[in-house]
Amino acid sequence: MHAGLRLAGLRALPQRPTAVVTVVVTPAPSPVAVAIAEVGRVLLAGGTVVLKPAAEAASAAIEVGRIGLAHLPRGVLN
Q1: pLDDT of the chain along its 78 residues, tens only?
Q2: Neighbours of 56 (CB within 10 A)
Q3: Separation of alpha carbons 20 and 17, rounded Å
Q4: What pLDDT score was predicted for residue 1?
Q5: Are 36 and 63 a contacting pair, CB within 8 Å?
Q6: How far apart are CA 28 and CA 67, in angstroms?
Q7: Phi, psi at 38, each rounded to 5°
Q8: Which residues pair with 77 in a beta bridge?
Q9: In Å, what is the CA distance from 65 to each residue of 2, 7, 28, 59?
Q10: Residues 6 or more apart in contact with residue 38 via CB below 8 angstroms
């Protein structure tokens, strides 16, 4: 049981931000679909992502990265 703050019969539990960094390695056959699915899951969980594309599919991952960098806070997608 947590020792949270009690105020007028209500109980507030302290919340800690998640500190998760996930590396997403995309395969060559479907780099965009895998990158979007995996990056989306991590971002929904509140984590940050390092995206590492396959050498054959680097241009597709760069486009996913450009879209992410335009819409996400700095440092969330690397």
Answers
A1: 445 445 566 665 666 666 778 888 888 788 788 888 888 888 888 888 898 888 888 888 888 888 888 888 888 888
A2: 11
A3: 9
A4: 43
A5: no
A6: 20
A7: -70, -45
A8: 49
A9: 40, 45, 16, 10
A10: 22, 24, 26, 49
Q: What is the pTM of this model?
A: 0.65
CA distance 38 to 23: 9
Structure tokens at 8: 């007028």
Q: What is the pLDDT of residue 68?
A: 86
Q: How far apart are CA 50 and CA 76, in angstroms?
A: 8
Please name every residue paired with 5 in a beta bridge, in sequence order, or none if there are none: 12
Measured CA to CA, the distance from residue 13 to residue 44 in angstroms comes to 21
Distance between CA atoms of residues 20 and 23, nearest Å: 10
Helices (H), 1-78: 31-44, 58-71
